[in-house]
Design goal:
about 80 residues; two-stranded antiparallel ribbon
Length: about 80
């Protein structure tokens, strides 16, 4: 992979959290930081794309709805019905 080096100063508590996540996943800290940056960019690009579509008045959008009886909650791979 090619790229440009980046230097930044992280607060100690954030660095500790990221290192703990890297250790738990068995990844180097650099891989966790790269993943975080990619997920941030993906999420915000999607957000702004949605905002732009709403401003432009995109003609038709599909809307989904779920009744309270059909709602489920995922917790570490397990699902359950919401009361």
């Amino acid at each position: 992979m090619s790229g440009a080096p980046l230097s930044l100063l992280l607060p100690a508590d954030l660095l500790d959290r990221l290192q703990a996540l890297a250790d738990r996943d068995g990844k180097p800290l650099a891989a966790v930081l790269l993943q975080a940056a990619e997920e941030f960019a993906d999420r915000w690009e999607d957000y702004y794309q949605t905002c732009d579509a709403l401003v432009q008045g995109e003609p038709e959008r599909t809307t989904l709805s779920v009744s309270p009886e059909e709602e489920t909650v995922a917790d570490c791979g397990e699902t359950g019905t919401v009361p």
